[in-house]
Design goal:
Strand content: 15-25%
Distance between the termini: 67 Å
Number of helices: 4
Order of helices and strands: HEEHHEH
CATH class of the largest domain: Alpha Beta
Helix content: 55-70%
């Protein structure tokens, strides 16, 4: 079981690198935003790969990039099969990774708290 996990983990990283290369070098759609392949989760039997990605841009750019990636899924799977030696190429499903957006929101909240704290400190100093 542990060996299977290590194999899936290693294979996931290899597939991640290859899909990242394919997306940046081979998908030539100029509408595709700045896409980062954040990770790949493989099922234990290596038959399905969930590919997590993030897109830099606004909501429209993210939606368009999602459609482009979804439409390119068969091509990406075929290219992975040509480049990565495997008995069976896993089915690929793209999934949006919200980690970057969530981290950005947390950062914004922390900045607001910091500004409010500084404002409160200035008000206290003026009262003295």
């Amino acid at each position: 079981m542990n060996q299977q996990y290590k194999r899936a983990d290693r294979l996931g990283k290899l597939i991640q690198r290859e899909i990242s290369r394919i997306v940046t070098e081979e998908i030539r759609d100029p509408r595709l935003g700045f896409v980062t392949i954040a990770g790949v989760e493989l099922t234990d039997d290596l038959s399905f790969a969930k590919v997590f990605y993030s897109v830099l841009g606004d909501k429209k750019e993210k939606e368009l990039s999602t459609r482009i990636l979804t439409n390119a899924t068969k091509y990406v799977r075929r290219r992975v099969g040509e480049e990565v030696i495997m008995r069976k190429v896993p089915e690929i499903r793209f999934g949006f990774d919200e980690t970057v957006e969530k981290a950005s929101k947390v950062y914004e909240i922390l900045n607001v708290i910091e500004r409010e704290t500084q404002t409160e400190e200035k008000c206290k100093k003026k009262k003295k």
